[in-house]
Backbone:
DNA sequence: CGGAAGATTGATAACTCTCAAAAATAGTGG
DNA sequence: CCACTATTTTTGAGAGTTATCAATCTTCCG
């Protein structure tokens, strides 16, 4: 039972045009997601229902006051359709976003219309944490799937960081992990073959999704990332992504269809990729 | 054949065996480097002679007291020969290093004896700034050339950060730039051809060296990075690095010999690489 | 001078890209 | 609910880039 079901509009059974009325969507009483409706749950006890609280809380205990504040900040969620930009390169920004639902990515566009995806942002993640940034952003952030976000003014966030050391620590930790992931990606791109790269990405994505409770009972996860995005992530052509995926399917390591990924043999996939989840700093290891 | 033997002593024209008497070297009156002798310049007014002070100072004004403290911390430099490890993956550490001289790099070893270089550390840079790290390090740091470092206990650094907001800001800024460089490298590896990657790296290295005043009067910079290290940086084979370098020489964009790099045509090199120095957050642009 | 590390060369093979087109799937509007 | 269009996935063929292997040459340094 999931908040983010992975599909663009289809699974949510609502159309989500670029400029729909956001508040209506976010606050509507019959919001068609199957998950908890954040707008109606305000109890502190319900901490794990809030992706931001859940995520920060995994880095260490948060004070009750801190949890309250975080809850308060994430009340007014706004829907965002796939393709919607959250931040644009070269612009300046006065706020950060918390992703509540869906998948977003950092990316840069290059001459020739190429795109390089620099990282994935999952529910509960803060972006762009480089709020400290004085200059213009050096990359864009956009939604890869439909989802929902909350904006937080930079000033407000800075207050929060100053007032709650537990939050500050969690955010700092989160930034370190981001960096760790970047290094891992670097290594992937530089040293591994196309199929190894793809396997590694799938392993990482699986572990991250599992960590935030998006693993379904049947062992699958929502996976609304199309082959073009995979190509832009892994520095390979769409054609080659396609063929590599087919090879993985043929060797019965994964099933990927209808925007859901089912890893049939984690061990083999991880071995193939040389994947060691340590860099994600998550307690439990891949089985 | 192990891949990481590092450069032999050369720039410094001294032999630097693994376990030489460090203090003798660092404090010797006739230290054979061409640069300023940090050990004998203790005046606060002489701020730019201290690589750490110089580097942090470029991010914003440092209070006189902060400069004093930084100076004090960087008195006891220790020589480090090429190949010397500063931090080892999986170990825990209770200190950071400031590089005063030479070039160091972050790297990870992979199965099969391969090495991936994850970043370069130049004089004035702090490593590993991930001192906050609770867990073991996820990568190693080692000297690529002979040089000198100063160790700072983590506790001491934390005190400093707490006591001097100007230092804290500079260190945070520095961490952000690190991340920015990582993203740029990612993009390089994923999207550019071997020759573009190489050009891009040379541009970046040139700008960084210039920024810390290592540009010689003749327009060259010290470049003690061998082709094996370049290969491990750019994810290509040594053979291909060699051939690509030759092509660059043939097209009269660079002269690279005797461990010195002379870029003859910056504009063309930058254009070839798609290099835009903005991500380094340095005032002056490449000419 | 001798040994070792680094740079260079040649030949071959492997991997991945590009182009072009067809098939399948998802989303839209009647 | 169905037809229609756009997007995404899949397939085939050929070309290009880069890796690998093995040997030689060069430079450095004791």
Residues:
């Amino acid at each position: 039972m999931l908040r983010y079901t992975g599909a663009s509009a289809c699974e949510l059974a609502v159309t989500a045009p670029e400029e729909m009325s956001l508040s209506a969507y976010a606050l509507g009483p019959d919001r068609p997601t199957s998950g908890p409706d954040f707008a109606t749950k305000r109890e502190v006890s319900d901490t794990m229902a809030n992706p931001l609280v859940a995520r920060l809380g995994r880095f260490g205990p948060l004070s009750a006051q801190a949890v309250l504040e975080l809850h308060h900040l994430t009340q007014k969620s706004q829907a965002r359709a796939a393709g919607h930009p959250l931040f644009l390169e070269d612009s300046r920004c006065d706020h950060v976003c918390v992703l509540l639902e869906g998948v977003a990515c950092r990316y840069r566009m290059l001459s020739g219309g190429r795109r390089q995806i620099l990282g994935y942002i999952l529910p509960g993640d803060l972006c762009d944490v480089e709020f400290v940034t004085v200059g213009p952003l050096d990359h864009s952030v956009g939604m890869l799937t439909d989802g929902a976000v909350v904006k937080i003014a930079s000033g407000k966030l800075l207050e929060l960081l100053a007032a709650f050391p537990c939050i500050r620590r969690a955010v700092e930790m989160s930034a370190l992990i981001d960096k760790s992931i970047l290094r891992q990606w670097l290594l992937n791109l530089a040293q591994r073959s196309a199929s190894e790269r793809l396997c590694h990405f799938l392993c990482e994505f699986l572990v991250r999704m599992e960590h935030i409770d998006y693993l379904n009972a049947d062992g699958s996860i929502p996976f609304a990332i199309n082959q073009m995005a995979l190509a832009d992530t892994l520095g390979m052509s769409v054609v080659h992504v396609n063929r590599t995926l087919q090879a993985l399917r043929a060797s019965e390591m994964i099933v990927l269809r209808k925007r859901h990924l089912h890893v049939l043999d984690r061990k083999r996939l991880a071995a193939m990729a040389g994947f060691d989840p340590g860099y994600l700093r998550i307690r439990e290891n891949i089985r």
In short: The interface with chain B takes residues 106, 108, 110-111, 114, 116, 118, 130, 132-133, 135, 138-139, 172-173, 175-176, 178-180, 182-183, 185-187, 189-191, 234-235, 274, 278-279, 281 of chain A (CB under 8 Å). The first strand of chain A starts at residue 78 and ends at 80. The two ends of chain A are 22 Å apart (CA to CA).
